[in-house]
Amino acid sequence: MTIQTVKFSQLRLSPLNVRRVKPSAIESMADDIAAHGLIQNLATYEEDGAYHVFAGGRRFRALELLKKRKAITGTYPVAVVVRSKEEAVELSLAENAQREEMHPADAVRAYAALRDQGGLSAADIAVRFGYSEAHVKKLLSLGSLASVLLDEMGEDRLSIETARALTITSDPAQQVELFNRHGDNAHRIRQALTSEKVATDCGTFIFVGREAYEAAGGTITADLFGKDGSGYADDPELLEQLAEAKMAQIGAELRDMGWKTVEASTTRPDDIYCRPMLHPVKREASEAEAAEIEQLSARIDEITESDPESEELADLHDRLDALETALQSYPPELRAQHGVVAYIDYRGALDVRYIRLRSDDDSDRGDRPKAAEGPYSKALIEQLSGIRTLALQQAVAFDPALALDILLDTMAAQLLHGTYSYRLAASVSPIRHAPEVDDELMGGSSIVRVETAMAQRFAAVPEEGRFTAIRNMAPAEKMELLAGLVAITIDATQHNGDADETRLRTADLYAEAAGLNMADVWAPGCEVFTRMKKGALLAILTEACGPNAAENCAKMKRNDLAVAVAERLPAGWMPAPVNPLPSVPEQPDDEGEMSKAA
User: Fold this and answer.
1) Distance from CA of residue 260 to its chain's centroid?
2) DSSP one-letter code for 159
3) Which parts of 195-326 fold into alpha helices (H)?
4) How far apart are CA 302 and CA 299, in angstroms?
5) Using CA atoms, how far apart are residues 395 and 382, in angstroms rounded to an integer?
6) Is the pLDDT of residue 596 over 50?
7) How far apart are the first and last CA of the chain?
8) In what side-by-side order are the strands of the sheet with 220-222?
9) Which of 348, 367, 417, 473 could join 207 in a cystine, given CB atoms 3.0 to 4.6 angstroms apart?
10) pTM, full prediction
């Protein structure tokens, strides 16, 4: 083994170097060599007049980078150890295996000494040792740890993450007490130190603002490892008071604007997304506005055609959007009838939602008749109305044009009119409605479950590549698919006695449009009547066949009575839950009646 100095231009990177992955932090290594020189020799072997580096590839690449920067030239002297080529692979492996980074605890002490005794800044230390300034600053921040905790870190009993959590407090005694209590558990230590604090990156703090919080006397505990000076507000109660005061002021401003109801709170209402939105009214543009919109649109078209990458396009679109937005507003008469909800979102921004309030005429009075009253139990009502749902689904599945109308009606109801989705007969979400009707009630029926039929009819549509397959369908086939899918979302069932009149009357409209006649597809059999009480059966018989028929059967046992009812009811008779809802009688017009009387 010999040590000699060669020119950098004589060096080559050896293919025998066992490190195949390109080493990282070449730039920091180059900075270190520029500051301190090449401290460690390169290991080489000589071949064909060149010196091939088999150990020290990272240092060699750093020297290459310095040459590119013109910090050194090809004649730069480099000390090398010259070994035989046969030794190269073994020595390369040994050199890489034995390399060990400085322990973080040692780095903390060393950097702190350079700062406190040598007067070096974090930037100076970073340049000399080839690390980023941010890395050095983080290690210097750990210098505030109690010395006994640095010893624990050196023994690998205290992790870097836990050490960072401990720096939330600058009290060495508290640091030691927390470590003794929770051990190497960063989460528990951070939780213990911040349980009565609020993070400065939470929505409430951002909404109030650091300046307003500190002006009110609030203090902040810095997180030495947080981003952009983040930390913890020490007085959550003060923060909440400031947030509530700011929201109260916003609420007062909204009330002054004439809104019928105003809700202003620091948290988002749980039901906010269930409330119907109020859409703004678009006014006609003034002559000046219309002219500017026309000019902007023409300019956008011109640039898009000639230079679609132009930076001017973004500004033009922003200006056009601003003009279009200015044409939309909530006029006084709209504000007087509807409400607004303001709250702080998770980002700390003010979120204002405009809510359409229901009028007195749109209340729930009379909306939910007691479906369980009369001869049918809740369970039987659900089964029978489920049969009607299946029949209606089948009818819609055979009528693509109607399915399209239902789809448009349902989407318009939700998106244009703010109707609650649960009040609609078709769920475009989509939600599958497959009534659990007992098979025995379907005896003699010609109803085919649409979901089963669709699975068979479109079995060839793959899950992977589905969109491509649909794109390649013929228009008629697409309409057939649409009809079936829309049909599956329809719900005309009275679930557990729930007879929401709005939803059921919508289903009645669909059934009428489909030309659905339940007698054509289903007839009630004994299975229906055996599930009913004797009194209910006699009431049905009285209504359908007269009191004499009921009186003649009054002494029969319930099962025999069920058979008799099935035999005696006229053809086409349907249980009430299968029929459309009865029409609502018109209320007399008082003024009209008085006028006639006069």
Assistant:
1) 32
2) -
3) 203-208, 210-215, 236-256, 287-306, 312-326
4) 5
5) 20
6) no
7) 129
8) 198-199, 231-233, 220-222
9) 348
10) 0.41
